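Input set for joint prediction.
Command: fold jointly, output tokens.
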Amino acid sequence: MALDIRRTIIGQSKRADIGHIGSCLSIADLLAGLYGGILRIPALDDAARDRFILSKGHAALALYGALHAGGWLAGDRLDEYCVDGSALSGHPEHALDGVELSTGSLGHGLSVGAGVALAARLQGSDYRVFVLLSDAECNEGSVWEAVMFAAHHRLSNLVAIVDDNGQQALGRTRDVLDLSPLAERWRAFGWDAQVIDGHDADGFVAVADALDTSDGPPHVLVAQTVFGKGVSYMESNIRWHYWAMSENEYEEALNELEAVEVGAPQQGRVL
Amino acid sequence: MRHAFVQALLQISERDESIVLLTGDLGYTVLEPFAERFPDRFFNVGVAEQNMMGLATGLALSGCKPYVYSIATFASMRPYEFLRNGPVLHELPVRLVGVGGGLDYGHNGATHHALEDIGLMRLQPGLAVVAPADPAQARNAVLATAEWPGPVYLRIGKDGDDIAGLGGRFELGRAQLLGSGTDVAIVTYGSITAEAIRAASLLEAAGVGTTIAVAASITPAPLDDLADLLDRVHLAVTLEAHYPSGGIGSLVCEMVAELGLRCRVVRAGVTTITRGTSGGRSYLYDKYRLSGDHVAETALAALGRVR
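tokens >
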């Protein structure tokens, strides 16, 4: 599934001539784990479905790729990405089925996720809420307001995933506003915190399945990822936070993805 | 007025189990009746207004109807973008309750004076903006907005007595008229309505026929009621505990311009930042020429009949 998501990211960002490619690629395996194994979604309007909020909304294309790979978005609709009049914006819109929350302003998703998790408790439902944040999003004070609330109320059905790719808009996170030690910070605020390989989708599913989401503290999985993962010239290169691909770059990216498909070894496993 | 709000909230919460109440650690001696009656539906989320608005968004996305309570400055401005990207963008039934709007928290100083909340809220499409004049109207405003499908901003006065003649009347999209004079209209909302009453009595005594329009439903705006009234009078004085821009003064100017009405508009509001001056509400009304006496003077001056 991760390969499908990456194909969507590369293909559609080229067609639309739009950036944020690196931020999308770094979460492709996490989304494969979520939509390929973790999320229980019998139907998009099922009141008891698990919720997923992409708080780092600038990776919307990766979400569209995952919704497509998971069978929730038809393939031809992907061609609407950033087309005038389409619901598939550069940041996800609630108007699109499968998007739980319109995001794009960092620091918003976790508090909303905490509210959804609280509603589940009030309504006696056992669904779970997964919120995927970027690491630099943890610069936002509002994230820590939500962190404190969720811990205080022991929202065990709330699972935060931090895409710890070490890159933010104008530099490395350690140089802009150092977040380390990230997992320890969440732990100090009362969360169950684990560090995972964000490119091992199977391992992510196993960890997520083992979480106690009925009792205890909320959970955070600090997913160590590589910005631009899967396209070697994009990896850890800030240019790919912004830029769109040239024809040559597009061909090279596609070739790398397809080389993986025919069995070339790569780090981590993909679903 | 705060107690009237809570009593009305208790009433609707008895029949609507989806209602929850969130507070940003404010409401001492006000919210206890709700907290005691519905302890499982009451959350003091701490001093964290952004998270409070985010929580309310998540709760409303999941079928709850959250009332979010804080002092008007903190309720309206700290989480403003969360309000925009949450309840407004998703058209959710979140009710944001800003207590003590305007100069109600007089002595507490400039950080507690909500003088731009109405303007900020008027900007947001689909957001009902309601500012009752007295406790009885506050109660009916809570009842009338209970089923509003989208978000609501309720500016609730800190204290205040009922306005004679208003009888608690409230209807979304309507203004309540007091008096029937055709010289001057005073268009107002919120707890400063008491000053409009004083001004109207002074004007009537000076032979100036005055009608007060209580525009507690600011959005949806009482367009028909105000258009009828403004078409009948020579002068409209807007009175609000708010900066002159963005609130009812702006609304009336927009209407007069857009409808091509002939009446003149004078906006009475707080014209400067309230920094550096401690004072109770009455003192500050005097200082900013918003007391009934000043408003009457303003109207007479505008009519060319200075006392």
